[in-house]
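Bumping my old thread because nobody answered last time. Still need a sequence for this structure:
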């Protein structure tokens, strides 16, 4: 884990409300795995740093994909090239890929696209076939950048790709599923594919296993810390009835 004071080196807007920021972070870029995250903070910003999945990592730069949903994310989306940021990571446990596990389906709803470019790259390095299934409310909310061998789009309003929930675009025997998105979407996925790996949304404080702000209820009892034992879980391991469903991702229809 590295605790860096770094600069914004790239910024681009994609889609209606999505911003991609790039930071100089060679040490993190070298070791980060898909599904891991960084905690970002501003010198003059909110007290607690905020967690973001690493979107891409190349040439000494890591990118995050973000949307303004509150005070911290609004300040971050307003950053410009050259601005200073505190960056701690990589944090958490990422997705696991089995070289003998068959084709890979990356399933993302809305901002759940965030960890998928790294996942596509890791899968390609193992020689696995990659299909990215990405859904959102409408075409303007989709992340237009995609990686892998093919992409299947789905929108609730039918404005791009298949109309309806993203999960309906997944075939019945898909091989390996890596998913990220609103918790209700991941819960629905768990009902159909309990072996799928899901990157969960929780509130986080420290990001390093100390504050217990990120607990994830497990089926069969007990809790995990999403920042340390997660945020990636097998869908069937999570007690979805007891997981908070009020986070902003949860407001995006599955
Ligand atoms: C492991 C992990 C990876 C994440 N990756 C990304 C990412 O790649 N891109 C991205 O845009 N966001 C990501 N998030 C969500 C992001 O961290 C929150 O949106 C952010 O912390 C909100 O901060 P804020 O100050 O803007 O919001 P606040 O002003 O604190 O809250 C505004 C609203 O956001 C909700 N909220 C607060 N914290 C979270 C949270 N952790 N998750 C979901 N909703 C929250 C609150 O309930 C409230 O409704 C991730 C969260 C986790 C736990
Ligand atoms: S965020 Fe503090 S223990 Fe996980």
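Sorry it took so long. Here it is:
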């Amino acid at each position: 884990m590295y605790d860096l004071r770094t600069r914004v080196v790239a910024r681009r807007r994609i889609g209606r409300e999505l911003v991609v920021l790039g930071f100089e972070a060679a040490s993190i870029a070298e070791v980060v795995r898909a599904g891991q995250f960084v905690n970002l903070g501003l010198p003059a910003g909110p007290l607690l740093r905020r967690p973001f999945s690493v979107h891409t990592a190349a040439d000494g730069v890591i990118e995050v994909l973000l949307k303004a949903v509150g005070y911290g994310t609004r300040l971050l989306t307003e950053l410009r090239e050259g601005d200073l940021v505190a960056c701690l990571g990589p944090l958490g446990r990422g997705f696991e890929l089995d070289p003998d596990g068959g084709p890979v389906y990356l399933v993302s709803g809305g901002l759940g696209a965030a960890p998928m470019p790294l996942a596509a790259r890791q899968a390609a390095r193992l020689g696995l076939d990659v299909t990215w299934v990405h859904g959102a409310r409408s075409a303007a909310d989709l992340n237009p950048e995609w990686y892998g061998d093919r992409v299947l789009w789905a929108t609730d309003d039918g404005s791009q790709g298949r109309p309806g929930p993203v999960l309906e675009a997944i075939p019945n025997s898909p091989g390996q599923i890596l998913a990220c998105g609103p918790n209700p979407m991941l819960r629905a996925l768990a009902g159909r594919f309990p072996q799928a790996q899901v990157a969960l949304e929780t509130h986080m404080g420290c990001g390093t296993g100390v504050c217990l702000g990120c607990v994830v209820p497990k089926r069969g009892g007990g809790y995990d810390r999403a920042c340390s034992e997660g945020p990636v879980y097998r869908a069937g391991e999570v007690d979805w009835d007891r997981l908070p469903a009020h986070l902003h991702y949860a407001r995006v229809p599955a």
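Residues 37, 46, 50-53, 64-67, 69-73, 111, 114, 201-204, 231, 247-249 surround flavin-adenine dinucleotide (ligand 1) (CB under 6 Å). Let me know if any region looks off to you.
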